[in-house]
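Bench log, entry 3. Co-assembly request; chain sequences pasted below exactly as received.
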Amino acid sequence: MLERIYRAQKVMDDACKRLGRQINIMEVCGTHTVSIFRTGIRSTLHDNLKLLSGPGCPVCVTDQSYIDIVLQLAERRDVLIATYGDMVRVPGKTGSLETKQPHSNVKVVLSSEDALQLAKDNRGKTVVFVAIGFETTAPSTAVVVKQAAAEGVDNFCILSGHKLVVPAMRALVSEKNHNIDAFLCPGHVSVIIGYRAFAEIAERFDRPCVVAGFEPMQIIEGLGEICRQLAAGEAEIKSVYTAVVTEQGNPTAQKIINECFEPVDGYWRGLGKIQESTLRLRDKYGRFDALKRFEITEAPAEDSTGCRCGEVLCGLIEPPECALFEKSCTPQSPVGPCMVSSEGTCAAWFKYGRTRNTKQ
Amino acid sequence: MCLAIPARIVELKGDKAVVDAMGNRWRARTTLLPEAKLGDLVLIHAGFAISLVDEQEAKKTWDLLREIDDFEETQDKVSG
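Structure output for the full assembly:
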């Protein structure tokens, strides 16, 4: 194993010397972010090799306007909110589900199926499932929407915050941050979409896209492959996570996403409106769309807290450059979503950054 | 949040399964992986199997999860 690490590190060092400039590689997966920080990989890299943590945590990229809608719905006596635990502490304009609402109508669920069951058990209320997550999570929401339709569970609906990874990567390299040289692509999102999904980013924008798993060896080999490509002037799609990621992905999951959802323009925290980046239920399932059921119009939120999560998500600044970091914004009392989620970049910096992230 | 956990299917009726990982058992669905069979190792995400996985890969992930658990415990102790 050591030999494989040395080999990958040599490729990385050679690429840095050959290019003679800073190389910026962005990971777009919260689990990669945590693994990179936890293992201290950054501190072993060449000075010119910089890792940026991009919009890879679903909680972090959720726009404040979405949280505000959840909070608004939670005020209704005829509604039960079913949410993954990650979302409970994310602040909206006027607080979070944890601080603001009576806890009795907010239920934490572990799966979309639990949310549907909640609706079956509480026929007198409307259950709104706070459906966030990338392509890994979207099919599980689609399954229960289809099930609710088939079984006539009409007091169930979803507030879709499901997001697509590739449109965000496209927005980053085409306008938000031109300095990104390559992407370390998410492992379990790719289980669903297949590594061919990144072809556009590699071919049209000339950025290497390499899928890796989460153990340190995988990440190092993924970075090694990226550096090999950069040094050779190539930009290809590749997976070093061959144990579970295929070129085509999971066709059943892709089919059910397409059957239930269509991509529409959507708001991302810090990245603004991105074309065809958010999944909305198709008209066929429109009655399960919380926005339609409660006649809510989405509008971008204006953030007045001074939180710079948006710039962090684009890889433009590192968390310590935000004036709130470690002062008014900590994991115990988070201002922005990147500090709330354990997979958020700010939370990772807070926990590991000071001792394990930089060369001392 | 997009992390999927390897687990073995120990019961299966239609698309409703019970899975086991490191001795923990919970309910999951195989709707997204119709080819999954009793005894298979699969990746579970948010209550759904999304992919088959081999023994070696599953073991690597379980080891990593154990390590993170241990590390988190150590960190908690250090921080108070």
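The interface with chain B takes residues 29-31, 38, 56-59, 84, 86, 110-114, 133-134, 136-137, 139-140, 143, 186, 188-189, 191-192, 214-215, 243-244, 250, 252-253, 256, 341, 343, 351 of chain A (CB under 8 Å). The first strand of chain A starts at residue 23 and ends at 27.
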